[in-house]
Design a protein that fits this description.
about 300 residues, alpha+beta, Metallo-beta-lactamase, Chain A, 7-stranded mixed beta sheet, 6-stranded mixed beta sheet, 8 helices, binds zinc ion
Length: about 300
């Protein structure tokens, strides 16, 4: 069983809390500020890890990077503590009844989302008590964290920058080998690219992400490679389109996920959303054309 001894210090007063399953989805790493105030940033690290943290000492406040359930599932365990959430999703944040529709489609898919998230992540409704926006500073004395709004993954995705040591908590701009994820209607490739560039301009020395952990080497090149994935996916998709294909056929080919090992309905939907976004920009660039519901490379 994991316990709080497994905390990894990033800088004095700020630790990474390793998530179950090594922080891989449906879990994520959390972060802990320890000082006069004990603040937990994200709660998707798993029930056993949260229980161990709470046994050691009470958590005074919870901060959420964005509204995805693998970051917020256990906010309900902190009844009575303030929950700070990005203001960009204040209408749905923490609401189990509404998030399924926001992250999939009303009806069967939203029900499948609630089943999956309820069973796998033990998600329960927990409403924020405070909201924050870009530029807000969480001042814990020794540790100060500046909110950077970084939409694209979701509309409300935020990062936290610790300027003294140049540490960036980048959450789901996660620098994993999978690359950026943008499978919702609200997700947006151009916004995501701009958000990555915004982070590059901060010139962080160390990045700690929700699914990859602490990265201290090669940070600028890693951010660039992560940004390059969007163009690489354009090319992957184009290679599937010398002949006209329907969206369904493209989803069957699973060019980005490379298969659907679990929650197939949801993964297919999300990959479909990602494919649509690439098709839209390839159409705008006049490299792909749509005809009768099929997509193909344009004749040059
Ligand atoms: Zn996320």
């Amino acid at each position: 069983m994991q316990n709080v001894n497994a905390l990894t210090e990033i800088v004095p007063g700020l630790c990474l809390v390793p998530g179950e399953n090594n922080g891989r989805f449906p879990f994520a790493h959390s972060f802990l500020v320890e000082g006069a105030t004990r603040a937990l940033i994200d709660t998707g690290c798993g029930a056993r890890v949260i229980a161990a943290l709470q046994r050691e000492q009470a958590v005074d406040m919870v901060i959420a990077s964005h509204s995805h359930p693998d970051h917020t599932a256990l906010n309900w365990k902190f009844d009575g503590a303030p929950i700070h959430a990005p203001q960009y999703s204040a209408d749905t944040f923490g609401r189990f009844d509404l998030l399924g529709e926001r992250f999939t489609e009303p009806g069967e898919l939203a029900a499948a989302w609630r089943n999956y998230v309820g069973a796998m992540m033990r998600y329960q409704t927990a409403l924020p008590t405070h909201t924050f926006a870009d530029g807000h500073v969480f001042d814990f004395g020794k540790v100060k964290l500046v909110v950077i709004h970084t939409p694209g993954h979701t509309v409300d995705h935020t990062c936290l920058f610790e300027p003294t040591h140049g540490v960036l908590l980048s959450f789901d701009i996660d620098l994993t080998s999978f690359g950026p994820w943008y499978g919702h209607r609200e997700s947006d490739i151009a916004a995501f690219e701009a958000s990555i560039r915004k982070l590059m301009a901060l010139q962080p020395r160390v990045i700690a992400s929700s699914h990859k952990g602490i990265i201290a080497d090669d940070v600028p090149a890693r951010l660039q490679r992560y940004l390059d994935v969007f163009d690489a996916r354009d090319r992957i998709l184009l290679e599937l389109l010398p002949r006209a294909q329907t969206l369904d056929a493209l989803v069957n080919a699973s060019p980005f996920y490379q298969g659907y090992p679990y929650a197939e309905k949801l993964l297919r939907y999300w990959e479909g959303q990602m494919i649509r976004k690439h098709l839209a920009r390839l159409i705008e660039r006049e490299v792909v054309a749509e005809r009768d519901g099929e997509f193909a490379q344009r004749e040059t």
